[in-house]
Write a structure and sequence with these properties.
Layout (H helix, E strand, L loop, with lengths): L3 H4 L3 E5 L8 H11 L5 E5 L5 E2 L2 E4 L10 E4 L6 H11 L4 E4 L9 H17 L2 E3 L5 E3 L4 E3 L12 E5 L2 H14 L3 E6 L8 H10 L9 E6 L5 H13 L3 E6 L4 H11 L6 H11 L2 E3 L2 H11 L12 E2 L2 H13 L10 H8 L11 E2 L6 H11 L1
Parallel strand pairs: 1-2, 1-5, 2-4, 5-6, 6-7, 10-11, 10-12, 12-13, 13-14, 15-16
Antiparallel strand pairs: 3-4, 8-9, 8-11
Helix pairs in contact: 3-4, 5-10, 6-7, 7-9
Amino acid sequence: MITTQLLRPESIVVVGASNNVHKPGGAILKNLINGGYRGQLRAVNPKEKDVQGVPAFAHVQELPDTDLAVLAIPALMCPDVVETLAATKHTRAFIILSAGFGEETREGALLEERILATADKYGASLIGPNCIGLMNTWHHSVFSQPVPNLNPKGVDLISSSGATAVFILESAVTKGLQFNSVWSVGNAKQIGVEEVLQFMDENFDPAADSHIKLLYIESIQNPDRLLFHASSLIRKGCKIAAIKAGSSESGSRAASSHTGAIASSDSAVEALFRKAGIVRCFSREELTTVGCVFTLPELKGKNFAIITHAGGPGVMLTDALSKGGLNVPKLEGTQAEELKAQLFPGAAVGNPIDILATGTPEHLRLCIDYCE
């Protein structure tokens, strides 16, 4: 369940906050401050009176009522802290960064069960455990970098893995791809990729919400839910691209040890994505490139002109477009000859148009004008 306290909390406490910004509890507090969070910010640290200029409390029992709690403390301490906050401080949203739960041991899985039972009992949201947090235009509750400048018209990223979310962000930032929100669900004990998609679908506002969703999935817990809500969002005008990792035998073993993910066959994933209309990607570069393409105006035709100063990549792009059902028609005739006469000797205009490595910006402008 995704509550208002998770998305737009009026108050946030970082339990395990630190003045050392290289620790998760210090880094997340720093990101909240630098992100311009406007609500009441609090810290729990038994050794400090304030942390990074934020009022600090020795114990969670001393806190006033608080909407969202971010936990950066050992796994063994988390169930009791969650119980205290939910029962006595009306906390209705939790982000648990800590690892050492069901992804590691049976004992850790039991700790997760206790936390989930408490969250469900009090109607609270639970992100994690074993995640980097949640970042939206209201609050930056993540301990990682980079933290991009968020834009309501940017894309929504939902990731099973926190480190992979960072890996994807790094790639996207270099391409100029902007984000509206980043969800790291970790072990997804209560809220996983499917639940986030469901919330986005059921609360979709076409005027205000992002129309692009990027997913990194290690485990599909509920294929029917994923299919239903992904299809519904796409019918409403959204575009969705996804990586499904851990589909090989060794990969599923690795995913299980990482976030406790359950294996699913590659053929089943392929069929599910095709039926839903999800564009399947196989690397972060593919995912962020597809995300960039999604931001462009919809193409109205199938004919392409390729303008390049390197012949080989032009040939590869011709193959890729042709195999994708698009056309790279031959350009010939009077206009083609006129263009060729204005380029350096050896340039080709048949399509791809190759202005050579020595081609100038003026040559590029000419080629674009002739193509238009």
